[in-house]
Amino acid sequence: MSDLWKKINDDIPEYVSDICLDYNLKCERVSDLKTALLGDKFAIEFGINRFDVDVYYLYFDGNKIVKHSCGNFFARAFDDSDRKNLISGNGVDVIVRNCLKVTVSGLSSKWRNVLQGDTSWLKDYKKSPYYGMDKLSDEEKYVFETNFLSNNEL
To answer: Which of 42, 90, 98, 133 ranks highest by number of CB atoms within 10 Å?
Structure first.
């Protein structure tokens, strides 16, 4: 079953290709179950789990990279227009792929400012019940420090 989630993660570049082109973002595999969209000073990371897609936002705060779990915060703005062209079926892979489709559509339609690198939304996020910080894995540290070092000073 784990190969199923790895395959979905392998397919993320296809799901986000329009966003990458529109916002000049780079799609980078982080691990078997995580892929990120990298901007100059931020990243949006997708984590594939058993029945859902987690969304994280990473950015520099001083000289360290901060990671927030923002999927629920972003999802509260999604609506029916973000739930179009879903895949038919009932399997777990269909559920996760549809979640990914809705998330990508919702980010593109409701959170353009985030995709453009604007961080003003963080004020509202930090006041929300969804606020939380996450620890970076070793793979995340490597990918993000490697990619961010060319655009930022640590």
So the answer is: 42
Q: Residue 20 CA to chain centroid, in angstroms?
A: 12
- The angle that helices 92-110 and 2-23 make with each other, rounded to 10 degrees, is 20
User: What is the residue type of 88?
Assistant: S
To the question of pTM greater than 0.90 for the whole model, the response is yes
What CA–CA distance (Å, rounded) separates 41 from 57? 11
> Does residue 139 contact residue 34 with C-beta atoms inside 8 Å?
yes
Cα–Cα dist 137/65, whole Å: 12
Quick: pLDDT tens for 28-41. Answer: 999 999 999 999 88
Distance CA 123, CA 43 (A): 18
Domain ranges for the chain, please list them.
2-149
